[in-house]
Amino acid sequence: MDSDAARLLDAAEFAAQKHRDQRRKDPEATPFINHPIAVARILACEAGVTDIELLQAALLHDTVEDTDTTFAELEARFGGAVTGLVREVTDDKELPRAERKRLQVELAPGRSPRAKLLQLADKLHNLRDIARCPPAGWSPERVQEYFQWAAQVVSGLRGTSPALEAALERLWAERAAGPGLEPGPGVGTADVAQRDSQ
Ligand SMILES: Nc1nc2c(ncn2[C@@H]2O[C@H](COP(=O)(O)OP(=O)(O)O)[C@@H](OP(=O)(O)OP(=O)(O)O)[C@H]2O)c(=O)[nH]1
Ligand SMILES: [Mn+2]
């Protein structure tokens, strides 16, 4: 593959094909491909990333986890560096959910700098999505759990991107300042879950 633009668009087209039948969990059932595109956009536009391999990996980052794509397939089409990055951010779906979540926290500090950037952008987009409109059926407690778990993962990714880390801090601050969100018994998070913070 020749130019940077060609390599990037090849990854975008591949991801769009692979995710073509998937929707996000939000009530509007947004096309799933919006998420990898948004993660790549965050890296390019908010973190100033120009590294095409990393932007390709962002576009491809959920293909193995969430579709029939194999690492061998990625390797053949996009090469070892891009595949290695996707591998670093791919959860083992054979493991129980709680174990996958625990491993993300445990493994975050040891990730490569590029994988850390990708994970920061992934968490930032998912948290923005949840703050804007949580997945259908998620209770306020589940939303809160996701925010708390993401904070633990992000604490292992620090020192990677001042811009993305500041954006995450802003999200947590907005959430803490939201209506009815001060910690305390019986305080719900429904207000902020519905709030459009973007
Ligand atoms: N916020 C949000 N997330 C959605 C939506 N639709 C799908 N997702 C995906 O769901 C995952 C978070 O949901 P969980 O229930 O915590 O995780 P699980 O699917 O892996 O069990 C994220 O996976 P991931 O990108 O692999 O990241 P991670 O959370 O596993 O790190 C996210 O991309 C949506 O509408 N809003
Ligand atoms: Mn993702």
TrEMBL record:
SUPFAM superfamilies: HD-domain/PDEase-like. ppGpp hydrolyzing enzyme involved in starvation response. It comes from the Eukaryota. It comes from Amazona collaria (yellow-billed parrot). GO terms for molecular function: guanosine-3',5'-bis(diphosphate) 3'-diphosphatase activity; metal ion binding. PROSITE patterns: HD (PS51831). Keywords: Hydrolase, Manganese, Metal-binding. It holds the Pfam family HD_4. It catalyses: guanosine 3',5'-bis(diphosphate) + H2O = GDP + diphosphate + H(+). Its EC number is 3.1.7.2. Gene3D superfamilies: Hypothetical protein af1432. This is Guanosine-3',5'-bis(diphosphate) 3'-pyrophosphohydrolase MESH1. Residues 32-127 form the HD domain. Its cofactor is Mn(2+). SMART domains: HDc. Belongs to the MESH1 family. CDD domains: HDc. Residues 176-198 are annotated as: Disordered.
